[in-house]
Amino acid sequence: MSPSSASLSALYRDHLEVLQQRAAVALQRGGYDHLLIAAGKTKYQFLDDRPYPFAINPHFKAWVPLTEHAESWLAITPGQPPRLIYFQPDDYWHLPPAAPSGYWVEHLDVQVINQPEQAKALLPDPSRAAILGEPDAALPNVVPNNPDSVINYLHFHRAYKTPYEIALMAQASARAVTAHRAAEQAFRAGASELDIHRAYLAACQHNDLDLPYGNIVALNEHAAVLHYQYQQAEKPTQSRSFLIDAGAQVSGYAADITRTYGNGHALFEQLVAGVDRVQQDLASQVRHGKDYRQIHLDTHRQLADVLVDLGVLKGSAEAAVAERVTSTFFPHGVGHLIGLQVHDVAGFQRDEDGGRIERPDGHPFLRLTRPLASGMAVTIEPGIYFIPTLLSKLKASAAASMVDWQVVEHLLPFGGVRIEDDVVCTESEPLNLTREAFARL
Ligand code: GLY
Ligand code: MN
Ligand code: MN
Q1: Atom of ligand 1 nearest to the CA of 256
Q2: How many CB atoms lie under 10 A from the CB of residue 88?
Q3: Are residues 95 and 216 in the same domain?
Q4: Residues 213 and 144 occupy one common structural domain
Q5: Disulfide: which of 149, 186, 250, 384 matches 196 by Cβ 3.0-4.6 Å?
Q6: Ligand 1 close to Cβ of residue 221 (< 6 A)
Q7: Strand 129-132 and strand 73-76: pairing?
Q8: What is the pLDDT of residue 4?
Q9: Its GO biological process terms (predicted)?
Q10: What is the per-residue pLDDT across 60-70, written as a single tens digit (0 to 9) for each?
């Protein structure tokens, strides 16, 4: 699904309309006349002239498909087209942003500046404005105030994606899936983590900085490290298992996808198949009105069944859940909101005014507690891992007898399994962006 430029333009126009309406209500609630959004500034390493990777203000890229545009601004005044103040420096050390072009330009009032201070004269009265941005983005008398009343409203509604956003997220998923295919091939050929990572980047035409998060490229025991942050250059003597958690982005929208592969070892292949079955069942539960916390709790129940079936756990699945033994093997949440940020904002927010919906007791890493609603995009990412530090705590506990430690020993060298899809909640059947891309590509 790759919308033509014409249809993307129409989707973008409708998206802007939704954002305009949200902004108007947010401003009214906060008692402001204008919404000003600073893209942000390039930051430099301490005592050095090397910049950190630039991360644009997510509020900025919600309005325009621009991600590399430090020092630019947006000014939104209800009833007027959004004004984009587009910074295009005269710079011969770096490549400046190209002149604004694309499907989105005609919908905005675009003003080009070549000095950051020129933005000030093109912004409306800052004393009547909600100004969203980091403190260092301030201009004289234009100081970010980030009012809660405005931000809470915008963050709460950002969970509900527009069709334009879903189209871009579908493109991001397709981009990532093409690269997942290349990574699997590299794994099957016995490549090192670093070479698999390179194959991934080449296939999705990203460099490391383009990725929405650092790739997790984990062979063998490394698959047990939830956020494994290295890519080993040496080839392993044996490639028993491969867990890859890797995304891609399109116009600032993220994909977040995990796949795990075995290498013919029967028990591990069964484990992968078991987690995959659970994952698909959980993804089918992404329905309007569903309490996401229930999906998380159901994940524990279903993974307990897999662990009992495989002989990792003795006794009943119910007892394993009741004794919290499943938390050793599945020590993270089942997923999160996704969109402009991989872990998108407002996963706990009760309503437009803020507030908080608590996690269930005993589940400290769940990132989403809001009830699902049409338009929300979430990940569904169950996993079963063999994590030495957690296993040794379990072994020292009263629940140790619920585990067949020989089977655990047998599976330790494989690290673990995670399967993760990006799923959109609709009025009816969920739209699984990831499976849809894997089916097509
Ligand atoms: N890639 C990080 C996560 O799955 O949440
Ligand atoms: Mn995720
Ligand atoms: Mn992930």
Answers
A1: 1
A2: 16
A3: no
A4: no
A5: 186
A6: no
A7: unpaired
A8: 72
A9: proteolysis
A10: 999 999 999 99
Q: What is the share, in percent, of the chain residues with pLDDT greater than 70?
A: 99
Q: Which atom of ligand 1 is nearest to the CA of 245?
A: 1
6 falls in which pLDDT band (50, 70, 90)? confident
187 and 151 assigned to the same domain: no
Please enumerate, by residue number, every residue annotated as part of a binding site for Mn(2+). Answer: 245, 256, 336, 381, 420
- Binding residues, by number, are 245, 256, 336, 381, 420
- pTM for the whole thing? 0.97
Cβ 335 vs Cβ 367: under 8 Å: yes
CA of 45 to the centre of ligand 1 (A): 27
For ligand 3, a single-atom ion, the residues with CB < 5 A are: 245, 256, 258, 420
Q: Are residues 298 and 417 in the same domain?
A: yes
Q: What is the pLDDT of residues 134-150, one digit of tens each?
A: 999 999 999 999 999 99
**pLDDT grade, residue 3 (50/70/90)?**
low
Q: Which of 121, 140, 156 is the last residue in one of the domains?
A: 156
Strands 109-113 and 431-432, how do they pair?
A: unpaired
39, 60 Cβ separation under 8 angstroms: yes
Strands 216-219, 241-250: pairing is: antiparallel
Separation of 371 CA from ligand 2 center, angstroms? 18
Judgement on whether residues 369 and 276 belong to the same structural domain of the protein: yes
- Whether the CB of 348 sits within 6 Å of ligand 1: no
User: Average of pLDDT values for 338-345?
Assistant: 98
Ligand 3 mean position to 126 CA, how many Å? 39
Taking the alpha carbons of 349, 351, 352, 353 in that order, is the dihedral positive or negative?
Answer: negative
